[in-house]
Here is the input.
Amino acid sequence: MKTTDLCSFNDNYEMTPSIAVMIAEGIESPRSEDEFIQAWQYIYDSNLYLQLQGWYGRRIQDMIREGILDA
Here is the structure.
């Protein structure tokens, strides 16, 4: 199974660190804008961004400032 098949394989999956990162990186296409935001909110809520490259934290701060993510 290719990574691009993850969402189509199971439409009722739970957000996981790997899926959230793949959506944020653009490797996996989100099914909707809400799923894109959910992935970033997951990265923020789980503090996963603290273990990733610095641009994740900067992007999260921008998204919070823009009212896209809940702080």
